[in-house]
Description:
This protein is of the alpha+beta class.
Amino acid sequence: MVPLPPLAEQKRIAAALDHLDALRAMLREAIALLDDLAQSVFVDMFGDPIVNSRGWPRRKLGKMGTLDRGVSKHRPRNDPALLGGEFPLIQTGDVAGSGGYITSFTSTYSDIGLNQSRIWPAGTLCITIAANIAKAGILTFDACFPDSVVGFTASPAKVEYIRAWLSFLQETLEASASESAQKNINLAVLRGLEIPYPGEDLIRVFSERVKAIEASKGANRTHLAALDELFTSLEQRAFTGMLWNHEATGDAA
Length: 253
């Protein structure tokens, strides 16, 4: 059984942990506010994307860049021979949970898996067309994905603009998706979507503003990760008695 420190020491440790936890909560709130800011910037620059309130000319998504399905020719898709190599494999769940930017992966293809698929470059916008409909995330590394995901490639600014536009339309597209064994939307529907097109210059300005927001979010996430690590370390040391035993040893020295 770990002996408890004096009451005053317990209060000091609890106060330190409470302070760290409050800082973590503030950073989480700041990150959430920055998420909202990106959408606010879009509306401020371009108006309501659902009704095209500014009356921008429209272009079909298929004309804004290249749009193709991922490739997974082999059946069954989960054949162990396909998996476990060095090539990142992105699934619909990875896209849906990406928060707009795909920064990690949990599955990989082997050489055999790669041979029946293809690699998409970093900067590709991944769009889900099955299970999670029209969820989107930009690849931050080269990766493969199956035919339940569509890849959109264009200039970085256009990719960013389309990602933001889809974030407003996702629920509408999901509601209109056909239902068979599961909801899905086909490539022809995506290619035919009409996108408000404000012109290259405004799209570039928007992209730069989003980059600045993402840089701030990245800095906050780095600080949050450091605080999470510190909080966990202090909590563990306090729970095991190492924190006050170490300090007592230091005081005695």
